[in-house]
Every structure is written in structure tokens, then in C-alpha cells.
Amino acid sequence: QVQLVESGGGLVQPGGSLRLSCAASGGVFSSYYMSWVRQAPGKEREFVAGISWSGGSTNFADSVKGRFTISRDNAKNTVYLQMNSLKPEDTAVYYCTVGKYWGQGTQVTVSS
After folding, report:
1. Which of 111, 99, 90 has its CA nearest to residue 20?
2. Confidence band (pLDDT; 50, 70, 90) for 27?
3. What letters, b where the CB count within 10 A reaches 16 and e where it falls short, cover 20-39?
4. What is the DSSP letter of 89?
5. Mean pLDDT of all residues in the chain?
6. Which of 28, 48, 71, 96 is least crowded, fewest Cβ atoms below 10 Å from its Cβ?
7. Residue 105 DSSP one-character state
8. What are the DSSP calls for 25-63, one per residue?
């Protein structure tokens, strides 16, 4: 059974940083594109960042370019989202996705 488990969310002040992790199990993920999607209250889900199987290609939403980075460790079946210079508008539940599978999400709140 495929499971994606996110961690690392929390409350942070504007300008702060967080690193999210997504640990995958129940399958072989090293060949798959993995991504992070977020959903803010009252808004639709939004693509945040994605990474190719090798890590050699990454994609970012315009709203996070230059502030967020994505990486992966295929040996650990884990993908990371490093979030710097956080803004209140980054507040959302962040989900890890691979193929049709989604994690349960982790809350990120940016507030003073």
C-alpha cells in the first residue's frame, strides 16, 4: 500500500524558513516525478514545485520562485521542500504527490 507522509510544517514568522519532508513507502518512487501542492483556506489547490526522478529538472510556481527549493533522496524515498523568506500568503496545507497518490498534508502557517 502506497503511503506518503509529510512532516515539517508549523507556525513561522514572516521571513522565516521551514523544510518540509515527504517520506514515501509501499512502492518504488525513484522513477517518478514528485511534487508539492498546497491549498489555502477558501482557495483551490495550487501546484508549488515538482522534481524529476533524477532531480535534474525542477519546476516552481511563479509565486515561490527564488524562495523555495525542492530536492529528493531516492535512496530514502523522500522529497524535500525548503521554504525561505516565507510570506503570510504561503499559509496553506502542503501536500506531497506522486502519480495518483497524495499525502495527508502538513499545515504551514506564516504569521507574526
Report:
1. 90
2. confident
3. bbbbbeeeebeebebbbbbe
4. G
5. 95
6. 28
7. -
8. ESS--TTS-EEEEEE-TTS--EEEEEE-TTSS-EEE-TT
pLDDT of residue 55: 86
Amino acid occupying residue 29: F
CB within 8 A of 61, min separation 6: which ones?
A: 46, 47, 48, 49
Number of residues in the chain = 112
For 5-9, 12-16, 60-64, 99-103, which range has the lowest pLDDT when averaged over its residues? 99-103
Name the grid cell of 65. 520562485
Q: What is the enclosing helix (H) or strand (E) of 98?
A: strand 92-98
* DSSP-assigned beta bridge partners for residue 21: 7, 80
